[in-house]
Amino acid sequence: MKLTDLQLSQVDAQIKRLIQTDSYYGRIYKEAGITGVSSQEEFEQLPFSSKADLRNAYPLGIQAVPDEEVVRIHSSSGTTGKPVIIPYTAKDVDDWAIMFARCYETAGITNKDHIQITAGYGLWTAGIGFQAGCEKLGAMAIPMGPGNTDKQIQMMMDLKSTVLTATSSYALLLAEEINKRGIRDQLYLKKGIFGSERWSEKMREYIKRELGVSLYDIYGLTEIYGPGIGISCDENSGMHYWDDYVYIEIVDPKTLQPVPDGEEGEIVITTLVKEGAPLLRFRTHDISRIIPGECACGNKYPRLDIIKGRSDDMFKVHGVNMFPSQVEEILGMVDGVSSEYNINIAHDEAHNRDIIMVTVEAEGRVDFEQTGQTIKNLFKSKMSVTPKINVVPVGTLPRTEKKAKRVIDHREV
């Protein structure tokens, strides 16, 4: 999908504004002799930006406005290296709320809904993003934040929450608890908006069934406003994204060359009107594709497919590259196996080889030994790797209120 004339002029304006500042990217563009763009070809010659840049510019090197124009700071939820600090102007905050309200409307949510927000608050963008969009829409925000499941369920019943927002991991925890207590008929939930991590089809179906909700995937990242730059619709045919605020291209993660619409690759995002910390050609490492054509729902905004995973989620065992999404696909083929699993990888020094242990949950009605053998055979035939399989009862693996960590690599880097 190529830049429109308007988008091209917006990118050109962003570059000209950046080179007038002493910001990190302003200096990079000056040193590279970049003064603006007037064509798709010139745009595709621009250097990529990355999270590593943002850490190099810590704390506020990417800020492109005076301090007195910054009204808020957010930071990514990453746990490695220096945190990423993103400054927002008042317009950035309002633009984000407009996009988020648009997400709610796309999901059929109105000002009559009661929206229970379980995402984290503070420096993280999620909680306050869900709330600002809710207030912009005019709906009732119930800003619970994460954790305290007893109170979450109590408020859900007493305040008649109709919409749940959460990570898919926490939605699973809530669904299992509501199932255990047998109180689904006391709930008023109709819709669930979940984001921040990819989730398997099995998890999706379980949450949908146990909470009795329609599900919507929301997309975004702290560096680019936060969640709310795109959402799925009732057609469940990808996520509409707001191309009046962001331009999205898909590139081959190895060659970094743009790929045609419909082909899978890494999402690269350019902010078109962001003031506090504009980012051009930001590499997200999220894997997806642009879906060609218009959606049957009638929404004219372009679509991204559901996020398949991250290019940096890949792990290698016995020379084979693997992604969590491939593991989830295998587990989805096996009767009685839940969506929950984890993978431990270690190096056996005595035999100088890597060991991979996959722990999965299964329902008590199935034979654990036979189920384990089925999974092992599928790994061998589909991924050319034979792991050790540990089958445990449903509910054994830990649940989380945040993003689930699926792969634990104990090998020395």
Automatic annotation (TrEMBL):
Residue stretches spanning the membrane: none
Domain of life: Bacteria
Pathway involvement of the protein, from the record: Aromatic compound metabolism; phenylacetate degradation
InterPro entries documented for this protein: Adenylate-forming_Reductase, AMP-bd_C_sf, AMP-dep_Lig_C, AMP-dep_synth/lig_dom, ANL_N_sf, PA_CoA_ligase
Molecular function (Gene Ontology), one example: phenylacetate-CoA ligase activity
UniProt keyword annotations, A-Z: Ligase, Nucleotide-binding, Phosphopantetheine, Phosphoprotein
PANTHER family, sorted: ENZYME, PUTATIVE (JCVI)-RELATED, PHENYLACETATE-COENZYME A LIGASE
Quaternary data: Monomer.
The protein, known as: Phenylacetate-coenzyme A ligase
Species in which this protein is naturally found: Wujia chipingensis
